[in-house]
């Protein structure tokens, strides 16, 4: 006889949170289950009056054992239901034209696909799985993604916790490095082995903002990775760009991205060094500095150290700015809230003793919608200093 449906009951505060639309239920919020559940099993949540509340993926070994996929009135969760949800994600991206062929198609938990993101790079769709819930559903979700997004090639990548699952092209094999367009510029994405899904698509809008600030300026790109900010700055009329990164591989990738855009001509220097140490020791001066480090707080207990590191990095950047220069500082640390990061940056501007004004702040791009507070990781600020 098949197991009965896995039924979950939550403590009152968690009920309220789920009813308000939050997709995560932490282990301490689970009051009871009717039986042990298997990873990836659909679990039905009932409220204290035994009414349907929500349905989600169950993962008993995770600190977030329940990830909600639907709340409200009961619905049948079948292929048609997932197909409609994928189409809704596609339709929200209808504003991208032919000059941008790289963007996020599905943004995980924020769009009702817990532990799954899908990014398009031209004719290649890269799907990254972070949850074991998708392992048994792979054939179904693959067919849905192919039907909705119509990629020529599809790559499956997995997080470390799913290391036993095969990675690579599913079906027809394409190029492991794909060239795509972003606002008319061309970039390479290492779709098989690159970081994330091959490129940092989430900074597209901020790269465009940097382009608008770059004319006639000497630009320093700190934690430059594959040089996205630098290529945009060059097209914006920068006098020079300096890429700073500890990875020789990243600097080489940046060089290739410049080669992909031969119409963009600029004096470029590549510096391979530890960015924190180099910024503390160098005596150079620039008109526009971008600081975009990797996440400095992957856990809540690392937050204090991250704030200290952001403060030191950007204080050094301010010291290297010529009068009238602009600092564009970004953070992708989810455990550092936007309000904290922006307050820190404004404080550092005041502490410099120089006249300053805030040009803009930014958050997530439209194709990376944060559906709940914990998903809000990206923030940036531009400050001009006299």
From TrEMBL:
The keyword Transferase applies. It comes from Haloferula sargassicola. It is found in: Cytoplasm. Residues 8-69 form the RlmI-like PUA domain. The keyword S-adenosyl-L-methionine applies. GO terms for molecular function: methyltransferase activity. Belongs to the methyltransferase superfamily. RlmI family. PANTHER family: RIBOSOMAL RNA LARGE SUBUNIT METHYLTRANSFERASE (PTHR42873), S-ADENOSYLMETHIONINE-DEPENDENT METHYLTRANSFERASE DOMAIN-CONTAINING PROTEIN (PTHR42873:SF1). One of its GO terms (biological process) is methylation. Keywords: Cytoplasm, Methyltransferase, S-adenosyl-L-methionine, Transferase. Residues 176-342 form the S-adenosylmethionine-dependent methyltransferase domain. This is Ribosomal RNA large subunit methyltransferase I.
């Amino acid at each position: 006889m098949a197991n009965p449906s896995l039924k979950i009951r939550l403590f009152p505060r968690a009920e309220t949170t789920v009813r308000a639309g939050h997709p995560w239920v932490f282990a301490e919020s689970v009051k009871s289950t009717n039986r042990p559940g298997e990873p990836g099993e659909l679990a039905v949540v009932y409220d204290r009056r035994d009414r349907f509340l929500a349905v989600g993926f169950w993962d008993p070994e995770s600190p977030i054992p329940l990830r909600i996929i639907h709340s409200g009135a009961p619905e049948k969760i079948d292929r048609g239901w997932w197909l409609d949800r994928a189409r809704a994600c596609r339709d929200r991206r209808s504003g991208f034209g032919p000059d941008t062929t790289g963007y996020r198609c599905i943004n995980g938990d924020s769009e009702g696909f817990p532990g799954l993101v899908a990014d398009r790079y031209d004719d290649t769709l890269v799907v990254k799985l972070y949850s074991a819930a998708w392992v048994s559903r792979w054939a179904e979700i693959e067919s849905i993604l192919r039907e909705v997004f119509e990629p020529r090639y599809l790559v499956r990548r997995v997080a470390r916790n799913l290391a036993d699952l095969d990675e690579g092209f599913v079906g027809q094999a394409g190029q492991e490095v794909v060239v795509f367009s972003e606002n008319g510029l061309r970039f390479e994405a290492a779709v098989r082995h690159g970081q994330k899904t091959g490129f940092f698509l989430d900074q597209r809008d901020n790269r465009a903002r940097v382009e608008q600030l770059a004319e006639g300026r000497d630009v320093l790109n700190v934690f430059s990775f594959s040089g996205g900010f630098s290529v945009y700055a060059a097209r914006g009329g920068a006098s020079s760009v300096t890429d700073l990164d500890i990875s020789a591989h990243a600097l080489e990738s940046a060089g290739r991205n410049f080669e992909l855009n031969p119409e963009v001509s600029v004096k470029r220097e590549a510096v391979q060094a530890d960015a924190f140490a180099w910024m503390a020791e160098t005596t150079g001066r620039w008109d526009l500095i971008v600081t975009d480090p990797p996440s400095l707080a992957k856990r809540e207990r690392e937050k204090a150290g991250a704030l200290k590191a952001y403060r030191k990095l950007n204080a050094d950047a301010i010291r290297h700015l010529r009068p009238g220069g602009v600092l564009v500082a970004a953070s992708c640390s989810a455990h550092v809230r936007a309000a904290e990061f922006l307050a820190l940056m404004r404080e550092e501007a005041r502490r410099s003793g120089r006249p300053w004004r805030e040009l803009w702040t930014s958050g997530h791009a439209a194709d990376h919608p944060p559906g709940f507070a914990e998903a809000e990781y990206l923030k940036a600020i531009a400050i001009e200093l006299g």
